[in-house]
Amino acid sequence: MSSSPRHEFLAGAQATLPLIVGAIPFGIIFGTLAQTSGLSAFGAIAMSLFVFAGSSQFIALGLLAAGAGIPIIVLTTLIVNLRHMLYSASLVPHVGHLSHPWRVLMAFGLTDETYAAVSNRFLVQKDKRLAHWFYLGSFIPMYLNWSLCTLIGITLGGVFPNIGNWGLDFAMSVTFIGMIIPYLTSRPMWAAVIVSGALALTTYSMPHKLGLILSASCGIAVGVSLLWLEQRRQYAQRGASHE
Amino acid sequence: MNEVVLILGMFLATFSVRYVLFAIAGKVTFSEGVIKALGFVPPAVLIAIVMPAIAMPQGSLWLDWRNPWLIAGGIAAIVAWVRKDLLTTIVVGMVSFALLRWWIN
């Protein structure tokens, strides 16, 4: 089968299509919520164009609305995006031959959606010489869609100035709930989420939303500890059954 | 201007995390422990944002069936558990929230 950059680009776009459809409401909701959270229309579109990280952008709005300072928002962005390092780690063996401009472009476009769409192309299929064009075919439509939906959301926010009273801010909570639930597949994960959520309520009055980082860190520590204990117990059981 | 600083900071925080391993491609591997710890990060951070938003929407703890944020959040969690579909979760959660607010008032 002959393959061309154009062919790869289109295949990447096709693989990303369902994820683009799923991202449309988030882009629109982000745009409508921006102004009610205290971000200007310019700031909202600039954030979508330059940051291009859906969950971080939503979290930034939540933190802005709550009056958090810029250092806390940037630090939270860093922590929330640490998962992208896992994505890039799995792709690293397949980008070493590419030029740095290509790597910069791919890194900028590394979202949950594009990773989900390209991981099969990069990790399963054999001929990877043109796979970066497949990646580009996923990233460019995602990027244009995200910017366009932000713009639509900003416009809707302008047409309905009291949109802040409609309870659309609840969309953020409900989106995050929908993102959290699929993680709850093990006891350590349940423990991490329960500890973090309960602590977040008790540390809510701490300045600059520091309670958020503290609660999440405690939850992660509890989850990792329980995971470690579970694995030790499994090793011990396996050892005993061999005797 | 504050927003420029904010967006620049968020850009640097996002891009550096995404680029650092690509920049040194092939020269580093994570230990298994670090990879597992990173897996806990998204849900732990997200729940720490969600819980105050739904259990204390007006600034103080409101654990009551008349709190539409809390009840609709619970409904959304059940839908997410059963359907595993983000879009359905959002739609059902938003509709329940609107109905609850209308019904309780």
UniProtKB/TrEMBL annotation, chain A:
It is a multi-pass membrane protein. Pfam families: AzlC. InterPro entries: Brnchd-chn_aa_trnsp_permease. The chain crosses the membrane at residues 20-52, 58-80, 133-160, 166-184, 189-206, 212-229. One of its GO terms (biological process) is L-valine transmembrane transport. Keywords: Cell membrane, Membrane, Transmembrane, Transmembrane helix, Transport. It is found in: Cell membrane. One of its GO terms (cellular component) is plasma membrane. Belongs to the AzlC family. This is Inner membrane protein YgaZ. It comes from Nitrincola nitratireducens. The gene is ygaZ_2.
Automatic annotation (TrEMBL), chain B:
The keyword Transmembrane applies. Signal peptide: none annotated. This is Putative membrane protein. It comes from the Bacteria. Pfam families: AzlD (PF05437). The chain crosses the membrane at residues 6-25, 37-55, 67-82, 87-104. Keywords: Membrane, Transmembrane, Transmembrane helix. InterPro entries: Brnchd-chn_aa_trnsp_AzlD.
